Amino acid sequence: MSSLAQQAQSTRLDDRSLYLRNLIVDALEGGERGHVGSSFSLVEIVRALYDNVLNKQSDDPVWSQRDRFILSKGHGCLAQYAMLADLGYFNKKELKSFCRFDGILGGHPERGVVPGVEASTGALGHGLAIGVGMSLAARIADCNWRVYVVLGDGELDEGSVWESALAASQHKLASLTAIVDYNKLQSYGAVSDVLNLEPLADKWRSFGWEIFEVNGHDVAGLTSLLGATPTQESPRVLIAHTIKGKGLPMAEGQATWHHKAKITADDVKLLRQALANA
Fold first, then answer.
1. Which helix (H) or strand (E) holds 212?
2. CB 25 within 8 A of CB 31
3. Any idea what the Cα angle at residue 20 is, between residues 116 and 23, rounded to 5°?
4. Cα(45)–Cα(22) distance, rounded to whole angstroms?
5. Largest interatomic CA distance in the chain
6. 239 within 8 A of 180, measured Cβ to Cβ
7. Is 161:131 a contact under the CB 8 Å cutoff?
8. Strand partners, 147
9. What is the rounded CA–CA span in Å between residue 32 and residue 9?
10. Using CA atoms, how far apart are residues 245 and 106, in angstroms rounded to an integer?
11. 176 three-class SS
12. How high is the mean pLDDT of the chain?
């Protein structure tokens, strides 16, 4: 295990991180299903962005000068939903109608349905391409908003990610930042077993990107890097070392918690207890 992965493992969650995870449990309870591990690994990433970095207006989600955030790993949407609800993009009561016919919150985020969602994602491999287009649009319109795209590590198996990475480098899109939620697990096993990504930093570097590696549960470290002014005429990528299921001892590092098709009342009780003891 790398030193950053070890730091991610040992990082204690503060009250806000635990609160946001409890909002995720609200949605899991309402929908009786959901991507547990995939959402819990990226809470601090979306928290750093929404709390400290993104230029946004929750009362005007389509404000023209807002920074753009794309959750390309759309199956982790519960983390984004918790953040959006807490910031007032929609009522927190909506979390209880997750995956219900009478609710707006689906199993993957939908633009035009969920306030604050910039792109409909879930079919993996498309978010970075959308981000490239948004960054080019900002340049053409002479706007200074920035674009942030969160990718799953398993998602990097998609060739369209690397086509987009080449395009971003070719056009010197310094306003574009990608964040890899590097929790080392995908839906049915370890990333290293399914399709090994290493040396991951060198791959991005060879595509012309500026590289940073960070403990993905360190909000201060994430904020410092994500909020920094680009110093090179190139896109940036943060390889965020995270723990799948972070905050839930029974789920941490377990591919079986990638998605649960049935969440029972007993499961919800277990999740609440785990967070109370975290």
1. strand 210-215
2. no
3. 85
4. 16
5. 53
6. yes
7. no
8. 68, 176
9. 28
10. 20
11. strand
12. 96
How far, in Å, are 79, 80, 107 from residue 110 at the CA level? 14, 12, 9
- The CATH code for residues 3-276 is 3.40.50.970
pLDDT range class, residue 231, cuts 50, 70, 90? confident
Select from 151, 182, 145 the least CA-distant residue to 164: 151
At 52 the three-state DSSP class reads helix
Structural tokens at position 152: 């799953």
Q: For residue 104, is pLDDT > 80?
A: yes
Residue 172 DSSP label: T
Q: Which residues pair with 176 in a beta bridge?
A: 147
- Any residues with CB less than 8 A from the CB of 26 and at least 6 apart, and which? 92, 95, 96
Report residue 108 CA to chain centroid gap.
12
Q: Is the pLDDT of residue 1 over 80?
A: no
CA distance 60 to 57: 5
Q: Are 203 and 209 in contact (CB under 8 A)?
A: no
Residue 163 burial by Cβ neighbours in a 10 Å radius (0-12, 13-18, 19+)? middle
β-partners of residue 190 are 185
Tell me how far the alpha carbon of residue 224 is from its chain's centroid.
17
Sort 204 into a burial class: Cβ within 10 Å, 0-12 / 13-18 / 19+: buried
The SS3 call for residue 209 is: coil
Place of tokens 């991507």: 35
Contact call for residues 108 and 84 (beta carbons, < 8 A): no
- What three-state secondary structure class fits 240? strand
Is the bond preceding residue 235 a cis peptide, omega within 30 degrees?
no
**Is the entire prediction scored with pTM above 0.90?**
yes
- Report which residue type is found at 273: Q
Distances (CA, A) of 153 to 17, 44, 176: 22, 16, 18
